[in-house]
Amino acid sequence: MELARRTWPRCIDMKVLDLQCANQHVFEGWFSSEADFQDQQGRGLIVCPVCASASTTKMLSAPRLNFGSGREVVEPAQNVALADGTAPSLQSVWMAVAQHIVANTDDVGDQFAEEARKIHYGEAAERGIRGKASRAETESLIEEGIVVMPLELPEFLKGQLQ
Q: Average pLDDT of each block of 10 consecutive residues along the chain (162 residues)?
């Protein structure tokens, strides 16, 4: 635990802002300053972790500052109710599912329909895959009895998971 705290410089002060995308998904953003937030928003770098929309706004809230000193680091518990006794939000559950899918499937890119057919007809090893397919390709796969599920994943999930 102590080792993890040493990796962060003590002088970093962060503003934690509540943000909302055009699809009404609420999420947090951490910024070094208001200017940093404005700069990132202006360059389209702030995207919704649920739908990948770059159309975001700052919600009215009392920003909290993370000074990082004088507080004990506590690891979040797994599979527990939130502090108010409620279950985790649908958004957090969806993110966990999306991360699981990315971590446990092969990305076949634009070759999705072709690779799904190869797996279905025994021409390729059976495994979980993800990729891109047009609506017509998806409908064709379903008509052939190939089980597929359209799922829009935010771009950041497709990269390295942290």
A: 37 75 87 86 87 86 54 52 60 78 88 93 91 90 87 66 42
Q: What are residue 131's phi and psi, to 5 degrees? A: 175, -160
Neighbours of 122 (CB within 10 A): 8
The model's pTM is 0.46
Q: What is the Cα–Cα distance from 15 to 17, expressed in whole angstroms? A: 6
Per DSSP, the residues of the chain read -HHHHHTS-TT--EEEEEEEETT--EEEEEESSHHHHHHHHHTT----TTT----EEEPS---EEE--SS----PPPSS---TTSPPPPHHHHHHHHHHHHHHTSEEEETTHHHHHHHHHTTSS----EEE---HHHHHHHHHTT---------HHHHS---
Q: How far is residue 116's CA from residue 127's CA, in Å, rounded to a whole number? A: 9
- Whether residue 117 contacts residue 108, with contact meaning beta carbons closer than 8 Å, is answered with no
Contact 127, 119 (CB under 8 A): yes
Phi/psi-derived region of residue 79, left when phi > 0, alpha when psi is between -120 and 50, beta in every other case: left
Report the distance separating Cα 24 and Cα 150, nearest Å: 21
Please name the residue that has the structure tokens 């739908």: 51
